[in-house]
Structure formats: C-alpha cells, structure tokens
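Is this the right way to post structure tokens for a design question? Let me know if I should format differently. Anyway, here goes:
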C-alpha cells in the first residue's frame, strides 16, 4: 500500500488566495469600488436576504459581472459564464462564484432598467476620472438586403 506524501517545496500554479489574482493598480478594482458605492435598492434591484426558495447569487456580484463584461465587449451570457471560469479579473471581481449562463440572462432580463441606469452612471464616473473622453458616439444602423 502506498502513502500520499505532501511536498512543502511544491510550486503552485496559481496564488493561494483570490485577492492575489489582480494587482493593486488593476482597473478591475475601480469597477469593484464603483459598484460597491451604489445603493442597489434605490436603483431598483430587489434585495431580500430572507427570501424563501432556491438560492440566488447576490445582485451586487451579478451587477459587477455584467458591467465589467460590457466594458470589455463581453455581452453574451455564455461568454460571461466562460470568463468566470477562465479570466482571473472576472474570478477576482465576483469572488470566485461561477453562475451559469441562464442565471446571468435571467438577472439581466429581470433588472433591465436598473442595469441601464448603472451603465449610464458608470460612463459618467469614467468621464469624471478621465478614463474615457466621452466625446465619441458609435451607432450601427446598417441595413443590408439579402437573398435568402
């Protein structure tokens, strides 16, 4: 019979804590601080810690995921789910939770207007900090005829 023996000199692939995943000056920390300052109930999110039924993810974590994902062009629920598994910034931001794409889509659907308000505030916040200029507007209104 063999024994399992540990090795204290073994190098680890990833840091031992999630906090070590991102540097102190990383931009993801600005998104985290911004969302933490918001009053979610005032913005229209439903927060009920005594809710009966199946467990849900905390709305602030889901909002962080969506806002940070949108800022990097990740709008798909499936891509956001994948980012929670593979991207260290996303893992740090949501504290290691891994919601599936249906949960992300349901949260987005149920809180559509509140998320719009948060995204508008996020743009204003980034303009105030000179992270973006805010003087360019992109609209895609292309229409193409096709033979189907």
């Amino acid at each position: 019979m063999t024994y399992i023996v540990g090795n204290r000199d073994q190098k680890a692939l990833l840091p031992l804590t999630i906090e070590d995943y991102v540097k102190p000056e990383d931009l993801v920390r600005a998104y985290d601080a911004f969302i933490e300052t918001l009053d979610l109930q005032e913005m229209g999110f439903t927060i009920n810690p005594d809710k009966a039924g199946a467990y849900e993810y905390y709305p602030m974590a889901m909002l962080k995921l969506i806002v940070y994902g949108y800022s990097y062009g990740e709008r798909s629920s499936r891509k956001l789910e994948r980012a929670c598994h593979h991207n260290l910034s996303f893992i740090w931001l949501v504290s290691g939770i891994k919601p599936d794409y249906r949960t992300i889509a349901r949260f987005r659907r149920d809180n559509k207007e509140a998320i719009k308000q948060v995204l508008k505030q996020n743009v204003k916040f980034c303009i105030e900090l000179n992270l973006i200029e805010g003087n360019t507007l992109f609209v895609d209104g292309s229409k193409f005829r096709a033979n189907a």
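Format looks fine. Someone answered above. Worth noting: Residues 112-128 form the longest helix (17 residues). The mean pLDDT is 85.
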